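A brief tutorial aside. Many learners find it easier to grasp structure tokens once they have seen a single protein encoded end to end. The record that follows does exactly this for DNA replication and repair protein RecF. Read the sequence first, then the structure, and try to relate runs of similar tokens to stretches of the chain.
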Amino acid sequence: MYVRHLQVADFRSWEHADLAFEPGVSVLVGRNGQGKTNLVEALGYVATLGSHRVATDAPLIRHGASRAVVRAAVVNEGRELLVELEITAGRANRARVNRGPVPRPRDVLGILRTVLFAPEDLALVRGDPGERRRFLDEVVTTRAPRFAGVRADYERVLKQRGALLKTVRSARSAELGTLDVWDGHLARHGAELLAARLALVADLAPHVAAAYAEVAPESRPARISYRSSLGEAFPGTPDRQALEEALLAELGRLRRQEIERGVCLVGPHRDDLELFLGELPAKGYASHGESWSFALALRLGGYELLRAEGGEPVLVLDDVFAELDRGRRRQLAKVASAAEQVLITAAVAEDVPEELVGVRFEVRDGEVRRA
Ligand SMILES: Nc1ncnc2c1ncn2[C@@H]1O[C@H](COP(=O)(O)OP(=O)(O)OP(=O)(O)O)[C@@H](O)[C@H]1O
Ligand SMILES: [Mg+2]
């Protein structure tokens, strides 16, 4: 698939921007702060309904404006769809496909699939488990957009059950019956999410190992594995029924502790994706270059997996070449030049390997000009 056209209005620093793209390589070049990342962030928003830089929508709306609009024409196997999103802070966003409104913004998920790699991705290796859970859930949702709904259901149940745990004062209170009901909901949605994550990690692992070996051939081998908060009770396989039963049993076992502490101690929101280089965990041990390469390998692994499953995603490389040494740049260029479409941002054109010749856009003073 590829993006043929991107238009934004009042998005980040852009009052208005209009870019026509083609398959193959496009490079956005401009000095720091000219708005290059803002443009690829807008595309990322169309693909995931979120930003890789901020957790809320407010910073995406241009300062002084009340709403932002992003419009993308996406071509997939010869068929073009126009996605339009209107982002309003503090209110529900609105979405249209081919100029017709759709019931919910998440109905546009799946039309554009992207894999975006950015400097912030160092947090995949060095940051909290939440960063890695978000990575997994994003790929899960890219594979099957209906998981956006599963994730929303799980989050809702978690919040309500958490609120209930804080009000239940003793193991004999009247609210216990209600807690049983919420345990059931948590186990059901949790098992669905968990099964999808486990299936993903199993499928992703060989791609990540291969991508890392390619980017950093002289380093120790990279390995990923899923760590579940189920501990001993973890069945280890993506069998939904078994996972639901294990979650329910564990919720029962931990009930007294949960009531004492007023927090939900078991479920996919407590899990992690563990990263190893050789025998050692990457977090806390890997060098800067190794951490960076591992983060890149996670993204590229995801990209290769999605590509192998059909419906090749658009590859977005935000400001990555400046961080890599010459060997790693060349390896990344090899992957990128085989992509159906790759969008690259760079402050300095010379940082982009010369084998990635494509269309160049100059981004300057609030304008984008095709060079
Ligand atoms: N909501 C907003 N309203 C107005 N301006 C904004 C908003 N959000 C970000 N900006 C501005 O956008 C600019 C940053 O844009 P962006 O991150 O796209 O730069 P860039 O070209 O990628 O730079 P670099 O090369 O440093 O990565 C900053 O000057 C920032 O102040
Ligand atoms: Mg940038």
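Self-check: The first helix runs from residue 36 to 48. If you spotted this yourself, you are ready for the next section.
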